[in-house]
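Incident log, entry 3
Record: Flavin-dependent thymidylate synthase (301 residues)
Problem: checksum mismatch between cached and fresh output.
Input:
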Amino acid sequence: MPLTDDQLAEIEAARATPQPTLRAVAPGMEQHLYKAVPVLDHGFVRVIDYMGDDAAIVQAARVSYGAGTKKTRDDSGLIRYLMRHWHSTPFEMCEIKLHVKLPVFVARQWIRHRTANVNEYSARYSILDREFYIPEPDALAAQSTVNNQGRGEVLQGEEAARVLEILKSDAGRAYNNYEAMLSQDGQQGLARELARMNLPANIYTQWYWKVDLHNLFHFLRLRADEHAQYEIRVYAQAIADMVKDWVPAAYGAFEDYRMGGVALSAKGVEVLKRRLAGEDVTQENSGMSKGEWREFVEVFG
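Fresh output:
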């Protein structure tokens, strides 16, 4: 179960006793506060707190650029201008704090985004629960033959069953040994900080993760992309749905210029010009590597 009965009761109590405030609130985000969105088999994402909204981005920008901008651009237009021209500071005026439960191997990928504040559940002080991420059959795939970081064809039949059984049995055996090594029930055993080293990377951990909107957009651009690893992508997609309700104008600009946009190299621009001029351009005469050319063709055909 993603949340314990005590945690669910705490959430219901918090939502049942709203407090008046003079701070700006985003109605779209208020509906998400505290609620846990299930992710994977045992994970979740929930909003603990947030600061700012679309208006906060505009307010910060007009402090930077002067009151005259209000006469020439409406709020949505200004936000799109900021996004289009990579003026990131106004987006840093919004922040969000999330409670996330996720497998350790996903957390180690996630933590590469170092522009956030993180506090993780400590297995030095506490005993981790017997909860492991076991993929659904359609998430079991072989190594890609063209991408060292990606997946290829989905495993089928006996091979899929064999892999699933290994994942389940290894996780269970490792946790049994973890429990057997702990200093508890009158046994001297190992300290928790040592016993934890035997746990598998698919065991679940939890953390609080606080980040500003500019850096959150960078996270979403990479992790909500269709090429991202599935296990982190589903978390990013759950967060993206919350952000869309929180700052709809900013998220719309983000979708347009970042998620739906394409960054071209100088070689890419030159190839487009040559194509528009009617020239037959191939990878061999484009000046691009095979990898660059493959990515170019995926977008422009």
